Amino acid sequence: MSTVLRIGTRDSELAVWQATLVQNQLKELGVQSELVYLKSEGDIDTITPLYALGVQGVFTKVLDAALLNNRIDIAVHSMKDVPTQMAQGLQQAAVLKRANYKDIFVYKEESTPAALGYNNGKWNGDNDDNSLDFTIATGSVRRIAQWLHRYPSHKVENLRGNVNTRLRKVKEHNWKGAIFAAAGLERIGLRPATSIDLDWMLPAPAQGAIMIACREGDEFALESCRSLDDESTAICTCVERDFLSALMGGCSTPISALAELNNGEIYFKGNIVSPDGKYKAVVEKRLLKEQWHEAGRLAAASILANGGQAIINSIRKTGLTTNGND
Fold first, then answer.
1. What is the DSSP letter of 286?
2. Which co-factors does it depend on (predicted)?
3. What is the domain-level CATH number for residue 248?
4. Reduced to 3 states, what is the DSSP secondary structure of residue 118?
5. Could you say which of 174, 259, 278, 311 has the lowest number of CB atoms within 10 Å?
6. What is this structure's pTM?
7. Which range of residues forms the domain containing residue 132?
8. In what order do the strands lie in the sheet with 280-288?
9. Category of 85 on φ-ψ map: left (φ > 0), alpha (ψ -120 to 50) or beta
10. Catalytic positions
11. Do 247 and 220 share a structural domain?
12. Which of 271, 323, 303 minimizes the C-alpha distance to 160?
């Protein structure tokens, strides 16, 4: 087997940046590598809303196939895009230290933050502008649901494409602004000054984290990446993904989760919101670090018993299914 690791990556600027980060870190460890560029279904179809594509792993399955077919040795993913059940024959090799997990709102008019209830660097408890002519854009059903829960009269339009394309579309369309993942824009130096953190919006499970995947049984790839693994990030993202996995139940709903590890304790927050934003169930838990293997499932059981199951049942009844990936 070649000692040069073949790193599979999507060919977007952000994906290549992430793969290059891994390549540089491997180089510091004395591991030689090369990048192999691939295009995912999610990159090819930039018009259809993500939830309408109707599949999980829309951004990852082409890399999964390349791994299983031995065209590449490791794949670099935005971890929030990776299905909770990885393809048979593949395994998680490492999770890099997490970057900014927050969602941000990129706005066009200076008056917009105040109209949303954001003043002097803080969000007000009340929504100052709930007018019908306020339109924002996002392709994420999770972000749509949380936005409509806070601003039920606003309109939301579909926004797809890589981060560069989406930023361009914001300038071209008559929207007040659009929602992005902070990490994606910050990593490639594109976060505009006209942006604010959505502190009230819970992120997608594993948002801001980068995962490296390899084939099961590939000890060279696994050992090469092992030193890149950040324990705290790996634990927190596992808790979040366990929470998501336990709630899937045959349909995917707008599910958000954030686990933080401090002083030997896991602080977890999660929610389920109906796609129209009308109904919301929440859970908050504090557990010991040693409980991380069961923390996500415990949080899922709690939210199901406190309104989450009713939301899921309602979605099943209407026949509406949505894709959980952002």
1. E
2. dipyrromethane
3. 3.30.160.40
4. strand
5. 174
6. 0.90
7. 103-197
8. 255-262, 265-273, 280-288
9. beta
10. 81
11. no
12. 323
